[in-house]
Amino acid sequence: MQNLKPGKINLEIKKCGPYRFIGKSVLARGHVARGTSELFQSNWHHNSWVFDELDKLSDYASDEPYNAALMTWELYNGEQGQLTTYTIGRFMKPDTPVPDEMDFYDLPEIDVAKCFALSHADIPYEGATFGDYFGHTHIDKWWDAIGEYENGKYEQVLSTYSAEVYPETPNENQYIFGYYIGCEEK
Is residue 69 classed exposed, middle or buried when 0-12, 13-18 and 19+ CB atoms within 10 A define those classes? Predict the structure, then answer.
């Protein structure tokens, strides 16, 4: 994540895990369905207690210190990917005890594409959109970058998981957005 420049994708693929992702989940139809983004955002706004509880488990912190949202896809009417589980929390060590009223996923060791982008400029958060901050650095381009990494050696595997990752930011009006995508060698 070093040397981030606005509008440029910083990507690396490496083995990650195993982890126990612990947090609080919501389940909704399709990630891009109407109202789904708002439901996911409300999970962040109404569950700050999740991170307070995870802070108490510092002995179990993994090498992934960031607050994150893990996304997995469930079967619905027999079709994969029709339901998205969106869990805010953190990647913890595999043996981490799960606090009461929290959800968890045990994640195996897999190759993960770690994509980071720095926002273009200082833009006040109120009313801003992902496009305002990151312009053409869109998630689709990140998937393209995975296909080009090491001469096309990898491809995304959404049946594993992906995660939005939120590192500390350089200042209050500039943001770093991370996206982790499960992948495998072709």
Answer: buried
| Alpha-carbon gap, residue 93 to 182, rounded angstroms | 18
State which amino acid sits at residue 90. Answer: R
Q: What is the pLDDT of residues 37-89, one digit of tens each?
A: 778 888 888 889 999 999 999 999 999 999 999 988 776 666 655 788 889 99
Domains of the chain: 10-185 (3.20.80.10)
Q: How far is CA 84 from the centre of its chain?
A: 13
Rounded distance between C-alpha atoms, residue 14 and residue 168, angstroms: 21
Shortest CA distance to 166 belongs to which of 75, 58, 41? Answer: 41
| Residue 31, Ramachandran bin (φ over 0: left; ψ between -120 and 50: alpha; else beta) | alpha
